[in-house]
Specification:
246 residues; MetI-like fold; 11 helices; 79% helix
Length: 246
């Protein structure tokens, strides 16, 4: 922060990048004044709501479908063998590279943005969930079956709790990717959302607004991740404090 403020007031950065405009490093007073005023406007809060709802929609779709497919694949070797190579190929395709196809299919509205975010978020959730289900000890399953547990009792009483730590690891990655891709799609095609506001500030050379938007985007990401962590601790209630700190 000290280096930033010195850059702002003394223009030290001009020795390394003399072509940068003097407004490139706004001082902290201007920056925080803009954040405090800008973040409470109705227009901004509406854009936050829009971006967050898109993120959560893509995330929930990716999570529900990926966990279900991972469960089936982990417990049925034939299905796992059939989908492994196609999944490995598809998951290495950059999500943004399919945006032209999605724009043709869905236009530039929210559906397209949710679709590209779903594509990127689904695979890490699937990989983590598949590993979680595959790593369930066979002895645990045999013990449950010896007590006549089967069907939903076996799934929700044994398999799902045993796989939850791995699943939540994938969910944290998937949520971050979902959020990043929603912002990216909004930046590239607009016409609304927080990503489009970022591009608008850039086109106007509004550096105070640009830095404020970046800061607020990071803050929203932290809040989303904190909410998921809170849910994880409530769901996996049997983990000790020492295990959470690892």
């Amino acid at each position: 922060m000290l280096i930033w403020e010195l850059n702002s007031r003394l223009g030290i950065y001009t020795f390394l990048a003399p072509n940068l405009p003097s407004e490139f490093f706004p001082n902290f007073i201007d920056l925080f004044n803009h954040i405090s005023n800008y973040s409470l406007t109705i227009d901004y809060l509406n854009e936050v709501q829009l971006t967050v709802l898109r993120t959560l929609a893509a995330f929930f779709l990716a999570a529900s479908s990926s966990i279900l497919i991972a469960l089936i694949a982990a417990r049925a070797k034939l299905i796992d063998d059939l989908i492994y190579i196609p999944f490995e190929f598809i998951r290495n395709i950059p999500a943004v590279s399919i945006m032209p196809l999605l724009i043709i299919a869905f236009g530039i509205g929210g559906t397209m943005k949710i679709a590209v975010s779903f594509f990127g978020a689904a695979f890490p959730i699937f990989v983590a969930s598949r590993k979680g289900f595959r790593d369930i000890p066979e002895s645990l399953l045999r013990t449950a079956k010896s007590y006549k547990w089967s069907g939903t009792n076996l799934l929700f009483g044994v398999m799902l709790p045993a796989a939850l730590p791995a699943i939540f690891g994938g969910l944290r990655i998937g949520l971050s990717i979902s959020y990043i891709l929603i912002i990216t799609a909004e930046m590239l095609v607009g016409p609304d959302g927080l990503g489009q506001r970022l591009i608008s500030f850039e086109r106007e050379f509004n550096f105070v607004g640009l830095y404020a938007e970046i800061f607020l985007l990071g803050l929203i990401g932290v809040v989303l991740n904190s909410c998921l962590t809170f849910i994880e601790k409530k769901v996996i209630y049997w983990k000790t404090d020492s295990e959470w700190s690892q």
